[in-house]
Amino acid sequence: MTGDMKPSRARMTPLPGQESVWDYPRPPRLEHTRERITVEIDGQLIVDTADVVRVLETSHPPVYYLPRAAFAPGVLRPTRGQTFCEFKGAASYLSVGSARSAGWFYPQPTPGFEDLADRVAVYPSAMDRCTVNGEVVTAQEGDFYGGWITAKIVGPFKGAPGTWGW
Average per-residue pLDDT in the chain? Predict the structure, then answer.
């Protein structure tokens, strides 16, 4: 987008069976789900699990946190970098297969987010393919938040250029 054009912040109305990210809370909510998640990188399936925690936050597609033990052995490697979330605490980063700094975790999540301990989130754009219940995920634009977009989720979504002020 150029000039004065900005992405629309107008809430899309969800159809039956869909969720609007504008109905998600702030601060974010954790939700345990039995959705089947798969992750592929470097031509290999590295995660296949239904032990999942979704983080739901206003204007963001869900971020899926997967048990560290569900990842193929040796695929996760510590890397440099830390960020801080005002809600979840300090995050550390991991390389995932050949993708550097493509995953993160909270070594000591803040109160209320303890269920994220021993779980890892990945940027879907850095993977070959991520699925939720067999549906291939679209990565949240901008990649800062690492959200997973499926047909079940409607926006508009924060992350693209021009949306930082939302």
Answer: 93
Which domain does 44 fall in, by range?
A: 30-152
Q: 3-class DSSP state for residue 71?
A: coil
**Whole-prediction pTM value?**
0.93
Torsion of Cα atoms, 56 then 113 then 103 then 162, to 10°? 40
Can you give the pLDDT at residue 2?
46
Output DSSP code: residue 158. B
Distance separating the N- and C-terminal Cα atoms of the chain: 16
* Residue type (1 letter), 84: F
CA angle 67, 86, 32 (to 5 degrees): 30
Distance CA 106, CA 164 (A): 24
Domain assignment present for residue 25? The answer is no
User: pLDDT, tens digit, for every residue of 25-66?
Assistant: 999 999 999 999 999 999 999 999 999 999 999 999 999 999
- Which CATH number goes with the domain that contains 84? 2.170.150.40
